[in-house]
Amino acid sequence: MEEVYRHACEVIPGGVSSPVRAFGSVGGTPVFLSAARGPHVVDINGREYVDLVCSWGPALLGHAHPEVVAAVQEAATRGLSFGAPTTAEVELADLIRGRIPFAEKVRFVSTGTEATMTAIRVARGATGRDVIVKFAGCYHGHSDALLAAAGSGVATAGLPGSAGVTQAAARDTIVVEYNDAEALKAVFAERGSEIACVITEAAPANMGVVPPDPGFNATIRRLTLEHGALMILDEVLTGFRVGPAGWWGNEASLGEAPVTPDLVTYGKVVGGGLPLAALAGPSELMDLLAPVGPVYQAGTLSGNPLATAAGIATLRLAHNAVYAHVDRASRQVQDALAAALDEVGLPHRIQTAGNLFSCFFGEEAATHGVRNYDQAKAADGFRYAPFFHAMLDAGVALPPSVFEAWFLSAAHDDAALNRIAEALPAAARAAAS
Ligand code: PLP
């Protein structure tokens, strides 16, 4: 593995195509994978791991679900890319609309980054305003405007933002502490007439899992409406993963009225493991996009036939039983994790957003919970590296950063869950030492 990594570093910056994969915050040599099936990934030496990364979310059904693979294979026999409209795009848009009634129109792009970037452009086009508001620790991809105080890999690397982002782009982004309704009110009181939109992760899972306080999303909705700004709900991670209608749909089951945003973004699960993402919303806003309206967006591979085939097959298979299974599997792993950490007396807090969860270590997190990015950073994140490596040694692949969620899938069966449970006690001891 070391030799492959050394060569990779000679030809690819950091040896990776996306920073967190480099194991920067957990140390050691990244594991190069050659295959993924069901609940497992397989490294280039043929070693199999139970996978709790699930490609960072897309593999809701497990890796390489036979029906998804068959759909992609069948699509491939008809051509890899047309650069022209297809009926499959229309079918996928209809499937999304069937689950998300306010998503009257859908535009397909290739990555979550493009989806949020385009949603921001629509918001600016709709309002004629420049300023956007995001929350510290929320990650919305790597477009310039959204890199300030971002979670995910930016958090893992400990960066306040990114070099190469112009001061003008940074100036137009106001960053507010997550779950701080008063701070958001103050920003609107001061600059409400300049604000084009507030973008928020539906339930943040890129600073670890930090769910919205009850009513927080509703406060964003109310303030944006009052001030003529748009609300963009980023469901790239949560969409079609935490429930059939994403976090938006789940809020109803939490006893809250779901907060309906102006625009919503999807990625990951909606592409079934291939590069596909989307933004959606009411026709009035979506028709601002070219060719109907003046807001430009395009993509050579947008709506790619293989990706749409994977998305259609995935959404068709992602029925209620899938979500019930993933929820159950997630709770089982959480329970085993809590028991292992309790056994060694390590204070911790497991936080959830539907079937997504992550674990914060330390007395403060255990006692008070984690409600924002500062608190997430203040937790005992140093305990994660030994924990992660003990799990890896035992054949369980966790996300290589304490700031990422753990992902289960419909393919995590009893055998996979047992392997995780068996690995946890030694990992808990490593974290506690
Ligand atoms: N939005 C959220 C909430 C995400 O979690 C991510 C990626 O992790 C993105 C946007 C960006 O998506 P992509 O990596 O496909 O560009």
TrEMBL record:
Q: Which residues carry this modification: N6-(pyridoxal phosphate)lysine?
A: K268
Q: Where in the cell is it found?
A: Cytoplasm
Q: In which pathway does it act?
A: Porphyrin-containing compound metabolism; protoporphyrin-IX biosynthesis; 5-aminolevulinate from L-glutamyl-tRNA(Glu): step 2/2
The protein's required cofactor(s) are namely:
pyridoxal 5'-phosphate
Q: Name one Pfam family in it.
A: Aminotran_3
* GO cellular component terms listed in the entry, alphabetical order: cytoplasm
Enzyme superclass (EC):
isomerase
Name the Enzyme Commission number(s) assigned to this protein: 5.4.3.8
Q: Which InterPro entries match?
A: 4pyrrol_synth_GluAld_NH2Trfase, Aminotrans_3, PyrdxlP-dep_Trfase, PyrdxlP-dep_Trfase_major, PyrdxlP-dep_Trfase_small
Enumerate the GO terms in the molecular function aspect. glutamate-1-semialdehyde 2,1-aminomutase activity; pyridoxal phosphate binding; transaminase activity
Q: Which reaction does it catalyse?
A: (S)-4-amino-5-oxopentanoate = 5-aminolevulinate
> What is a biological process (GO) this protein takes part in?
protoporphyrinogen IX biosynthetic process
Keywords of this protein's UniProt record, alphabetized? Answer: Cytoplasm, Isomerase, Porphyrin biosynthesis, Pyridoxal phosphate
Family annotation (NCBIfam families): hemL (TIGR00713), PRK00062.1 (NF000818)
Q: Which family does it belong to?
A: Belongs to the class-III pyridoxal-phosphate-dependent aminotransferase family. HemL subfamily.
Question: Whom does it interact with, and what assembly results?
Answer: Homodimer.
Record-given protein name: Glutamate-1-semialdehyde 2,1-aminomutase
Question: Taxonomic classification, please?
Answer: Bacteria, Bacillati, Actinomycetota, Actinomycetes, Propionibacteriales
- What would be the name of the gene that encodes this protein? hemL
